[in-house]
Each structure stands twice: as C-alpha cells, then as structure tokens.
Amino acid sequence: MRDEYGTKRRQFVHALAAGGLIGMGGGWVRRSWAANAVTLPFANGLRELTSGFPHKGEMLLLRSRPPLLETPFSVFDAGVFTPNDRFFVRWHLAGIPTRVDGGAFRLVVRGLVGRELSLSVSEIMNGFAHVEVAAVNQCAGNSRGFFKPRVAGGEWGNGAMGNAVWTGVRLKDILDRAGVKAGAVQVRFNGLDTGVIAATPDFIKTLTVDHARDGEVIVAFGMNGQALPFLNGFPLRLVVPGWYSTYWMKMLNDIEVIDRPDENFWMAKAYQIPDTPHANVEPGQTGVKTVPINRMVPRSFFTNLGDGSVLPVMRTQTVRGIAFGGDAGVQRVMFSSDGGGSWMPARLEKSYGKYSFRRWDAQFTPHYAGEFVLKVKAVNENGVEQPDTPNWNSGGYMRNVVESATVVVA
Ligand SMILES: Nc1nc2c(c(=O)[nH]1)N[C@H]1C(S)=C(S)[C@@H](COP(=O)(O)O)O[C@H]1N2
Ligand SMILES: [Mo]
C-alpha cells in the first residue's frame, strides 16, 4: 500500500516486530582499492566516494570513525525524498554500539514525572497513536566548507541534509503517559552512543517542556516507510521538525524531565550561535551574546546544473532544484538568470507539508553565448528570505546565502 507520500508503508513494522539485531556487521568500513573521489568546490574538498558503510549506498566520506558521510548532491535531483541508503550520517562520539537488539531495547522516561516508564519498541508502536511528518533533517554545519575565512569542524558541502517521511509517536503522548510534574522546565534526550574515554561529555540535547509537548516533536521508528537505518539511529530517534538536526537524538534510549535549564556541554558550550541576525558576526569579533542553535532558515538549490554546466544557446532549458522553508513552509522560490538583476517566480511542485523539501523549476532561454550567473532564492511563509551575502560565525553554522551557478552558454 502506498500512502500520501508515495512510500510503501509498514515494511518497518515487520523489521522491528521481528526484534532482530541490526548492526554494523564485520566492522566500520570496507575499503575498496579502486576508490572514486569527488572534489567539493572549496579548499581541501577532495572526498573519497565510499559504499562501505552498512545499509548505505555511495556516500562522500568525510571521516570514518565516528562516521561523517555526506549525500552526493545528484541524489537531490532524483526525487523530493532522500533514500535511506543515501541519507547523510553524522555522529560525534566514537562509542557507537556495533549492534542494537530491537527486541531488548528500552526507552526510559524519568526525572520529574509521576511514574517512570521503560518502554520497548513494540510497546511504543502498539501503545500510542502513529503520526507521520515529511521533514528536512539538516546538520547545523551543513555547507560549513564554504565558510570564508574557514572554521573548524566537519567541512561539509551542501549534502549534510536530507528529507524523509518520519513515522512515530508524539513525544507529547509519551510524556503525558509518564505525567510531567509541576516545576518541569526542560526535557533532556540521550542516545546509546558514548565517548571512548570517560572525560568526553556524553552527547545530550535538551528542549523546553513546551517545545517537547507541542505535538510536533516525535519519537520516530520509521523513515521513508522502513526501519531507521542503523547509522541514522535505529531503533528510535527524535524528530524535531523545523529545527537543526543536532536535536534529533539518534538511538534515543533516555528521556529525563528536569527542573532547570540544562548546563551540559552540548547545550551550554557547543552548538551556540551569535544572537544576531543570520547568526552573523565579523570574523574575529568577540563579546557577542550567544544562544543555543534552534530553528532552521530557508534554503534553495539547483539540482540539475551547477558551476561550469554547458547549455545550448537559443534553447529553452528547464532549470530545477529543491527548496525548504526551515521552520515554515515555502512561500515562493525566485529564479534569476542575470546574476540577481531581475527575478521571476519559479513553479513549485506538490507540497508535502511545511517541513519538507519542495521541488521547483523555471524555464530559461539564453539568447546569446557567454557566461550566465543563475541564482535561486527561497522565501518562507513567515516572509523570511535567503540573504544575498553569506553569514559568518566561528561554528560554521546556518549558512543559507542565495545560491549561484555560473553556466556557460555555447
Ligand atoms: N545519539 C546521537 N544522536 C545524534 C548525534 C549524535 O552524535 N549522537 N548527532 C546529531 C547531529 S549534530 C546530526 S547533524 C544528526 C545527523 O543525523 P543523521 O546521521 O541521521 O543524518 O544526528 C543528531 N543526533
Ligand atoms: Mo549536526
């Protein structure tokens, strides 16, 4: 059966109900000798293409352990949803279990609650209403490699993002079952991964109680109609639509309701952004107030051409790509074929909801030979539009400048 998203449903039900082990198999990565590579358009952008990770097809390798795998950009031209086996992968800590037993796994809910819960995956799947949402999962540092001056961190191109239909249960329903007590301020999320030395702060993320109970945040067991791939958080992950994926805790096994703002390293020190428009500061600027990264901003991309593409003169081209609105739907996508001098509205394809990628296309007929600078810009339903100049901050977060492609008409 196909649902409104066109995905085959319920396959994951069998995978999970079987309670089987899903794991890494023999090891982290099978190396092939004939390694293909691609070069991303910035310094040190050479990336090996690897198919050596479990449940993953061909991916750009940034780091093996813990894995950083980027989606090759051509994948985004093939469809509005990113296939599970091409979905990017990002882990902070090297202590990732090599196997997870879906049958023995428990999600614990504790802290400031009326009663502690310890839920198996099947108790979650059978005990709460199922919900589905199409949502973009994007690393806060997506596109960091383009930052000038360069900053420390994973040097991603534009492929540390993906769009999927997530199936799960409302976090609100789980919290209601546990009974959140008066005085609760935040909800902390932890997964199965740990550091390899005790001094490494465990990866823990926190949302306010109101956000956690807004009915949109889900504990997901399904991704595009299948169980979550191991490296994308099997068997359960948090999905926080509209927010950067640092909050989308993978292998989620622990939820703690607390009575104070969380001061753990990953909230108070890491993933802080300047509290300025576009999280933008001058390189080297100090003394700027920071806040934890939060809502996403709109972006749009070309997917069927890029810098250096050659187009025939006097022939109408369909230029196409993807856009997303961040924390709101896409209101419009604008296309320019003269470097931003004039803009025309692109045609938008079907909407899969406000948190999803949306495909767009525009017609372009170059009337003379030479170089053309094409640009694309998304505006979201809140009227927020992509900036014409790149932002900068020391974390390399939240890049969303208007994208350009310089094409050659011959
Ligand atoms: N348990 C766990 N969850 C995690 C992380 C992690 O290191 N450990 N990284 C977060 C960050 S920063 C990102 S970008 C996303 C990546 O999700 P993906 O690997 O499914 O694409 O996972 C988030 N959830
Ligand atoms: Mo991230």
Automatic annotation (TrEMBL):
Ranges for domain Oxidoreductase molybdopterin-binding: 96-266
Cofactor(s) it depends on: Mo-molybdopterin
Superkingdom classification of source: Bacteria
Gene Ontology biological-process annotations: sulfur compound metabolic process
GO molecular-function terms, A-Z: heme binding; molybdenum ion binding; molybdopterin cofactor binding; sulfite oxidase activity
Keyword Metal-binding: yes
UniProt keywords, alphabetically: Membrane, Metal-binding, Molybdenum, Oxidoreductase, Transmembrane, Transmembrane helix
UniProt-listed PROSITE patterns: TAT (PS51318)
Transmembrane portions of the chain: 12-29
Annotated Moybdenum cofactor oxidoreductase dimerisation domain residues: 313-401
Pfam families: Mo-co_dimer (PF03404), Oxidored_molyb (PF00174)
InterPro entries: Ig_E-set, MoCF_OxRdtse_dimer, Mopterin_OxRdtase_euk, OxRdtase_Mopterin-bd_dom, OxRdtase_Mopterin-bd_sf, TAT_signal
Any coiled-coil regions, as ranges: none
PANTHER family associated with the record: SULFITE OXIDASE, MITOCHONDRIAL, SULFITE REDUCTASE
This protein's name: DMSO/TMAO reductase YedYZ, molybdopterin-dependent catalytic subunit
Source organism: Paraburkholderia tuberum
UniProt lineage: Bacteria, Pseudomonadati, Pseudomonadota, Betaproteobacteria, Burkholderiales
